[in-house]
Amino acid sequence: MQRERLKTFQVDGDMLTVPYRYDEEAEIFIGQFPEFDTEPRYTPNGRPWKNVVSDSCPYAAGGYDDCGSCPYLIKAGPQDIIGVCFHERLRSRTDPEGADPAAI
């Protein structure tokens, strides 16, 4: 049996591939998701990737403070546990090459 699978998530012009490893005890594949709070990742449009369990966002607009209940989190699929935040105040103002457009 294959012990690892890859799943690619595509949102806002960015593609992120996550390895899933088979856990023999649980008998399921478990995703090895990045920790975006400690290692941020942005789409080419400057929007941050987030895990649904990320919390304490000052712009959360849901019943709770977590990204999973916030309507600004856009996911590739409804069951995904990662997605991209589309709140404009969290959007990075730097372009992909790292130049700040405001400084030009």
Task: Summarize the structure in words.
With 104 residues, the chain is mostly beta strands. Helices cover 0% and strands 30% of the residues. The strands form two sheets. A three-stranded antiparallel sheet has the order 1-2-3, with no helix packed on it. A three-stranded antiparallel sheet has the order 4-6-5, with no helix packed on it. A hairpin with a 7-residue loop joins strand 5 and strand 6. The termini are far apart. The C terminus is likely disordered.
Task: Kindly summarize this structure in a few lines.
The chain has 104 residues and is an all-beta fold. It is 0% helix and 30% strand. Strand 1 (4-11) and strand 2 (14-23) form a beta hairpin.
Number of helical segments with 4 or more residues:
0
Rg from alpha-carbon coordinates? 15 Å
**What overall geometry do the principal axes of the alpha carbons give?**
globular
**End-to-end separation:** 54 Å
Q: How are helices and strands ordered from N to C?
A: EEEEEE
Q: Count all strands and give the number.
A: 6
Instruction: Give the low-pLDDT segments.
Output: 98-104
Q: What is the oligomeric state here?
A: single chain
Strand numbers in spatial order across the main sheet: 1-2-3
Structural class: mainly beta
Arithmetic mean of pLDDT: 88
Helix content: under 10%
Biggest sheet statistics: 3 strands, antiparallel
Strand percent estimate: 25-35%
